[in-house]
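quick one, four chains, predict together pls
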Amino acid sequence: MPSTYKYPRPALTVDCVVFGLDDADLKVLLIQRDLEPHRGGWALPGGFVHVDEDLDQAAMRELREETGVDRVFLEQLYTFGALGRDPRERVVTVAYYALVKLLDHRVQAATDARSAAWFAADELPTLAFDHAEIVAVALARLRGKVRYQPIGFELLPPKFTLSQLQHLYEVVLERPLDKRNFRKKVLSLKLLEELDEVEQDVAHRAARLYRFDERRYKKLVKQGFNFEI
Amino acid sequence: MPSTYKYPRPALTVDCVVFGLDDADLKVLLIQRDLEPHRGGWALPGGFVHVDEDLDQAAMRELREETGVDRVFLEQLYTFGALGRDPRERVVTVAYYALVKLLDHRVQAATDARSAAWFAADELPTLAFDHAEIVAVALARLRGKVRYQPIGFELLPPKFTLSQLQHLYEVVLERPLDKRNFRKKVLSLKLLEELDEVEQDVAHRAARLYRFDERRYKKLVKQGFNFEI
DNA sequence: CCAAAAGTGTTTCACGTACACCCATGC
DNA sequence: GCATGGGTGTACGTGAAACACTTTTGG
């Protein structure tokens, strides 16, 4: 049933920039719009905030509904409210960014009713609305934050090699890192648990697997520890 | 005239955490509410976003209308949208924080029709709605950001002494800093212009005045420079 | 002349950075 | 046996941190 208010209200939406990482580079998950405006164009997953759900819930719901992505790292990014950012009416959107383990989510995105696909973050198609700006802000946030918060692990499988971890930082920070210095640095943090396991099915010496020790990290943070890479 | 929509919409507001600095400590500007709920209680300046103004404009307008504060550093903080944060109806608020030169704004705030007052940031009265949480987030942002962005200068007069600057960092970061190391560090950044002026009317040796060289800062940023204190 | 804050250098230590070779494995 | 990435140590330089006394000015 319709609702009436004394003064006009902006519509409120959420949009999500979903990042994933593969062997080659950083990816962003986009959906193809099935409505005007920009019908058929690529856009960020998102939609209207229901009046009885909070913002984080709305973002998670839209992500699940439109891309099948669920139970991932999700953090509010920035709220975009420029006049005219949506040609139909005034729409304010609370943008989020998500970090997913790409291997877990490759299939769902591709097989969803709505067409969804991963694009290299530095080769995105033209995006609807102001979504290109939102992605730019999300990238900047990710680049800034990955250095002083251990969020990079959200992009990797639970067990990973040090080379995978280094590759992650190289891709996100867009610069090469020295292998020995990188390993020295991350191991000195004492946040990685060395497993008695190695990679499988590689055509060369198998690398040791590590796991991020989240319990230990939280304990150290309480003691004033600051993650930094 | 009233507006009708197919689905109910949250109300959208902006709220501002205004920081100022005096000799003693960091202050926050609050207003006394003249409407229910929390009538007579202290709250952040803020109000509804008009449908024809963008978010930054709305924040600036509310700040001007409610406190007389104008032309100050203002930056979006975070958007708060928990269910029940306003007892009347669903209200989503885009929070901002502002940094003002307290001496410029002491009078207006006190003489405005609405009662406004500065409170020490660590001794705030009970606040309406979830405003205490908003202030906490703003403080965390300020503490984090002051170290790697030259925003602290927004809290000082255009000409200031190195001791004032050090005091600023000590108050915001909540820890004492070594005088010699601090001076060495800030001067090494080459962002302060040493003036041929000293403090006036002090009962001891007058300190030299400095000015933040914003042009130089912007130029250095373009060359990849990163401010850090 | 006393109170109050301004101003000034050196030493030490930790950490970031640069850098090259041998090892294990699968094919 | 060869191609591919895994894994390892040292030397150097920069910058952070610790630390105390003299100078200037007004009252």
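The two ends of chain A are 53 Å apart (CA to CA).
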